[in-house]
């Protein structure tokens, strides 16, 4: 990431954490390309203040606005002949000189039509792979073949001096160090900047409408945001009884990666709660997706791509309430398999064997701790199994969302599908 991420976790909320529609609209002000259309399709009037009753939405909106005070995002179209490799840096980074800039923000800030940008994320590979040069460039850098690099840089400039092909450069100006960073190289056709702020606006308005119709309270129990990525977990209050000891509740997960993903995605995480007499425990499971008759494998609950029109996003997001209800019913049936588990220690051994055999980096970094925890405690009933698996999840860093999701998805497969 370019800007340090913000991660927040909440156990509950109060009404002071709700926001007004006027506060929500603030996140559309900085990049306001879609503001008027969003307000129109979602029937929101700027001069009419209404309350978005999603718990902890104020903290989320404030975090987004704080990120916006630290940087400015710009997308520019640039011809290949105007993109010049300047310097190879360590850690898969490079500096590129971009000439013939026409963007007003950059020109006013630099007082020049030239700027130097440092790559971030996979931008270095994207740019150098255009010339099939990425691996060789690293080889030259690692072996200090600086003269050869200079020769190749000149060769690339000469070779592309008449190359009129145009690409979109996704840039960010970080105020703290007053530097420009190149986030990505993309096609100029079709892409729409349905970015972090856009996706949060759409999610909050849609879920507030769902809350009113379903009488289901909703609050944010976790979010992580940086300059290019956002993860938000919306917890729904209503619980569905599975049997006399186990109940289920649903968390809707919003993810939007402006660099790595082609789509904004919504998925589900389920919290299973065990309660008997004075024994209480809970466990989070993440299904691999929703099962649909016309799809051979589970798919994301709902997605919309970074292309098309705002109206298309609005039309698609209207499906979300029904999809949430359908997903809950689907997983409620699966959860009955957990309530029927009888050989609890056998289940634990099955999980241990799967962890031992795993080669996935999301697990490997935690593998010694996980195996130590799993082998240190015997389990004789469902409550003990829940407690043990909950303690395993506590071993993950709280902001390591990728590894936590990987664990929850695999745990679902292990407990439900015995895979």
Task: Describe the protein in words.
- The chain is an alpha+beta fold.
- The chain has 15 helices and 16 strands.
- It starts with 5 loop residues before the first strand and ends with a helix.
The radius of gyration computed from the alpha-carbon positions, rounded to a whole number of angstroms, is: 25 Å
Average the pLDDT over all residues and give the rounded result.
91
* Total beta strands: 16
Q: Give the DSSP E fraction (strand runs of 2 or more residues).
A: 25-35%
End-to-end Cα distance, whole Å, is 34 Å
SS class: alpha+beta
* Quaternary structure of the protein: single chain
Low-pLDDT segments, ≥5 res: none
* Sheet having the most strands: 8 strands, antiparallel
Helix content: 25-40%
Shape: globular
The number of distinct helices, counting runs of at least 4 residues, comes to: 15
In short:
With 419 residues, this protein is an alpha+beta fold.
Helix and strand layout, with pairings?
Elements lengths: L5 E4 L9 E2 H5 L9 H7 L9 E2 L4 H12 L2 E9 L3 E7 L3 E6 L5 H7 L4 E5 L3 H7 L4 H9 L3 H14 L6 E9 L4 E8 L9 H19 L3 E8 L3 E8 L3 E2 L4 E12 L5 E14 L2 E7 L16 E4 L4 H8 L2 H20 L4 H14 L3 H4 L2 H10 L5 H12 L7 H17 L2
Parallel strand pairs: 7-9
Antiparallel strand pairs: 1-10, 2-3, 4-8, 5-6, 6-7, 8-9, 10-11, 11-13, 12-13, 13-14, 14-15, 14-16
Helix pairs in contact: 11-13, 13-14
């Amino acid at each position: 990431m370019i800007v340090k991420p913000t991660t927040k976790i909440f156990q509950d909320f109060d009404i002071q954490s709700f926001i007004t529609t006027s506060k929500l609209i603030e996140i559309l002000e900085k990049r306001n390309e879609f503001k008027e259309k969003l307000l129109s399709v979602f029937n929101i009037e700027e001069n009419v203040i209404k309350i978005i009753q999603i718990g902890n939405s104020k903290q989320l909106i404030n975090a987004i606005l704080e990120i916006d005070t630290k940087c400015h995002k710009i997308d520019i179209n640039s011809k290949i002949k105007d993109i010049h490799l300047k310097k190879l840096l360590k850690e898969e980074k490079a500096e590129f000189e971009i000439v013939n800039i026409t963007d007003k923000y950059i020109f006013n800030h630099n007082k020049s039509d030239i700027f130097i940008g440092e790559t971030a994320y996979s931008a270095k590979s994207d740019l150098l792979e255009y010339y099939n040069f990425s691996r060789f460039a690293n080889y030259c850098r690692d072996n200090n073949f600086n003269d050869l690099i200079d020769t190749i840089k000149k060769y690339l400039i000469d070779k592309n001096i008449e190359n009129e092909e145009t690409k979109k450069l996704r840039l960010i100006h970080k105020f703290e160090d007053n530097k420009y960073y190149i986030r990505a190289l993309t096609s100029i056709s079709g892409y729409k900047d349905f970015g972090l702020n856009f996706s949060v606006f759409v999610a909050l308005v849609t879920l507030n409408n769902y809350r009113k119709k379903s009488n289901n309270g909703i609050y944010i129990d976790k979010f992580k945001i940086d300059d290019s990525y956002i993860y938000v977990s919306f917890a729904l209050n209503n619980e569905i009884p599975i049997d006399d000891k186990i109940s289920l509740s649903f968390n809707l997960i919003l993810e939007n990666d402006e660099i790595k993903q082609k789509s904004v995605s919504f998925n589900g995480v389920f919290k299973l709660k065990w309660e008997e007499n004075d024994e209480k425990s809970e466990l989070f499971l993440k299904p691999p997706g929703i099962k649909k008759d016309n799809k051979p494998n589970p798919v994301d609950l709902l997605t919309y791509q970074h292309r098309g029109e705002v109206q298309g996003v609005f039309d698609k997001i209207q499906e979300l309430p029904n999809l949430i209800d359908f997903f809950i019913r689907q997983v409620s049936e699966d959860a009955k398999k957990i309530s029927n588990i009888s050989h609890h220690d056998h289940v634990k051994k099955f999980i241990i064997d799967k962890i031992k055999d795993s080669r996935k980096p999301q697990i490997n970094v935690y593998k010694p701790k996980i195996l130590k925890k799993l082998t240190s405690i015997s389990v004789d009933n469902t409550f003990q199994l829940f407690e043990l698996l909950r303690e395993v999840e506590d071993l993950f860093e709280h902001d390591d969302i990728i590894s936590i999701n990987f664990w929850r998805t695999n745990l679902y497969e292990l407990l439900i599908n015995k895979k």
